[in-house]
Amino acid sequence: MVMKLTPEERKRYAFPAQYVLALHRELRLDRFRSVSDILSHGGNTLAVMVKTIERDKIQVMIELMISNILEFLDLHKSMSPTNISETARMIMGAYYMITVEDLLYVFEQAKAGRYGKLNYAINGQVIIDWFNQHFSERCEAGFSKSYQEHQDTKHGNDARISQKLGDQNNRLRTLFKQDRNELKNNTH
């Protein structure tokens, strides 16, 4: 599995782009067109992955993603390895509830210019801002999904309740008719 990469194994990939491309293929990122798609997929969060894979490996993965976008943007002023590492650590700490799919999605959206065009320089704050924006969208999409599920359940329950009430009403009518017929027969 590509995500289970040690710093030593990282050397297998001459460029971060090769690593990110391998992740794209492994996770089939092309199927995620929106934040809602990622939420529906329900992949493992960074917090879960840290418990199962190791914190250092997850940090290296994020560092490679940051390095990849820096290569892609080809800016005049880039980030130092220390800044890349610090930004990756901050993402892991602040956004432990997102998935690898979220990470890849944010960086793909940044490459497409969704978070604004970068011409000269980038720093950790800019990248953290991308995640702030993504997380806000993720929360909104999660709320919408949850609300829709609630409405579907509520309306489904309303239909079931209406059906039960209708059935009970029909039984009561039948019993009432039977009682009335018995009364008529007993009085005659």
Task: Summarize the structure in words.
The protein is mostly helical and 188 residues long. Helix 5 (81-94) packs parallel to helix 7 (124-187). The protein has helices spanning 16-27, 35-41, 46-52, 55-73, 81-94, 100-111, 124-187. The model has no long low-confidence stretch (mean pLDDT 77). The protein contains seven helices and no strands.
Q: Proportion of β residues? A: under 5%
Question: What count of helical segments does DSSP give?
Answer: 7
Q: How would the global form be characterised? A: rod-shaped
Sequence stretches where pLDDT stays below 50 over 5 or more residues? none
Write the layout of secondary structure elements.
Blueprint: H1 16-27, H2 35-41, H3 46-52, H4 55-73, H5 81-94, H6 100-111, H7 124-187
Helix pairs in contact: 1-4, 3-4, 4-5, 4-6, 5-7
Features:
188 residues, mainly alpha, rod-shaped
Concise description?
The chain is an all-alpha fold. The protein has seven helices and no strands.
